[in-house]
Design brief:
With about 160 residues, the protein is mostly helical. It has one domain: NusB-like (N-utilizing Substance Protein B Homolog, Chain A), CATH 1.10.940.10. Belongs to the NusB family.
Amino acid sequence: MTDKPKASAAQRRSAARFSAIQALYQAELSQLSAGDIVREYSDFRLDGEGGRDLDITNDDLIDPDRGFFADLVQGVAARMVDIDALIDGALEKGWTTKRLETVLRSIMRAGTYELMAREDVPMRVVITEYVDAAHSFFDENEPKLVNAVLDRIGKTLRPGEAGKN
């Protein structure tokens, strides 16, 4: 196995976000705890070894920021009720978090958690990162929905940042 390419802190956080979305999706479907999911990803997926059985490697992928990844997954699990309430309040009337497709729900939960708990990351960066992630999974209106919901939540949680461009 070759060394992974050198990556900036921002690129490593982007990779962590993408992995966290996948881990949250898996956690919801498998009913495993956040701690178990973080351990599994750290042991088998984030290092590129997990794909060996499928004859694929992650050698050329960016090594995620593991601490950031763990914070996202465990933070979403710990604050799920509050996160879902914020998302529900930002969705159009008649929609709830439970009605969202599982990957879309995972994207919104991770983004909402980051807006809640990671004030070290600017609001515009959080929104852009999760809209970009949504584009990786969806072609239609879902990325626009992620943008609108996270923007509404960001304006509520970080009103001082909302007016800055």
